[in-house]
Specification:
The chain has about 280 residues and is of the alpha+beta class. The chain has 2 domains: about 90 residues, no CATH class; about 110 residues, no CATH class. About 20% of the residues lie in helices and about 15% in strands. α1 packs across α3 and α1 packs parallel to α4.
């Protein structure tokens, strides 16, 4: 009998792969996030607009456009005002990191696929979607980076993968994720995100068999002989852990070391697009 395989990724878990962005650009120029305090919820949309738009002038001129600070601030603030910040009391965790990433986006003059999530703001935006719960506390959801509320305007009671926790559905409390070899009843309960017939199994090393349910170690992906990423419908005997594709090489979704396949090439960044320019320039 073929094993029953459970795969993490359901119940509203927001995968890091979906958060396409430039979080890493926060280190490019300017002060670091640790030098800037997190900002209050009431000030965050305005601060976000200022961080992005105060650094856009050089990028506009590089593309023979004129900076339009007032228009830029209106558009960026409007994006952040889509969220209900009245839910949050006090400084927003991760907001300083978000402001640094927004500044780095316009300073670098690279495309951000602009959404608030896409420029390193996922941690800050979690504050309006979920309350971050500790070990043993009641919960209703397992979250990673982001967490969507099931019953808006109620906040989710989230256990975060980044904290080493998951929401155990039997006790409805946050519990510690277990190492390979431990008993499990859901992939979220495993540090490998793979639960096979009640046991956490390890991620595959290079050359090892893999599947949609049991993935590969960091730096590898589950590939068909053609190089395409294996899906849930592929025969498992055809899928093996393979090194991710380096920058500049041909790609399909899910195979790049940078995490981004843009126009058929692995590229972590590329020149700013017209949509982004139209937000910050005239």
């Amino acid at each position: 009998m073929k094993p029953t395989l459970l795969r993490a990724g359901m119940e509203g878990l927001v995968s890091a792969a979906l958060i396409v962005g430039i979080t890493g650009l926060a280190s490019c120029g300017g002060s670091t996030a640790t030098e800037r305090p997190d900002v209050l919820a009431t000030d965050f949309p305005t601060a976000a607009a200022e961080a992005a738009c105060a650094n856009a002038a050089d990028c506009c001129r590089m593309h023979d456009r004129k900076p339009d600070g007032d228009r830029c601030r209106r558009i960026i603030a409007a994006n952040f005002n889509l969220f209900d910040w009245s839910r949050v009391q006090g400084p927003i965790p991760g907001s300083a990191k978000c402001l640094e990433a927004l500044a780095a986006w316009t300073q670098s003059c690279t495309s951000a696929f602009f959404t608030p999530f896409a420029v390193g703001c996922a941690e800050a935006l979690v504050s309006v979607e979920a309350q971050r719960k500790a070990h043993g506390q009641p919960c209703d959801k397992t979250c990673s980076l982001g967490c969507t509320a099931d019953n808006p305007p109620q906040l989710s009671q989230g256990c975060f993968i980044e904290d080493g926790l998951y929401c155990d559905k039997s006790s409805h409390t946050c519990q510690t994720r277990s190492a390979p070899g431990s008993a499990c009843n859901h992939p979220f309960g495993c540090t490998s995100d793979a639960c096979v017939e009640g046991t956490c199994v390890p991620l595959g090393a290079e050359g090892a068999s893999c599947s949609f349910a049991v993935g590969c170690e960091p730096g590898l992906y589950c590939a068909l002989p053609s190089g395409r990423q294996c899906s849930s419908t592929e025969p498992e005997e055809l899928c093996h852990c393979t090194a991710k594709i380096p920058e500049g090489e041909d790609c399909t979704i899910g195979v790049c070391a940078s995490g981004q396949c843009n126009y058929g090439k692995c590229k972590s960044t590329f020149p700013i697009g017209l949509e982004d320019l139209n937000m910050v320039c005239r």
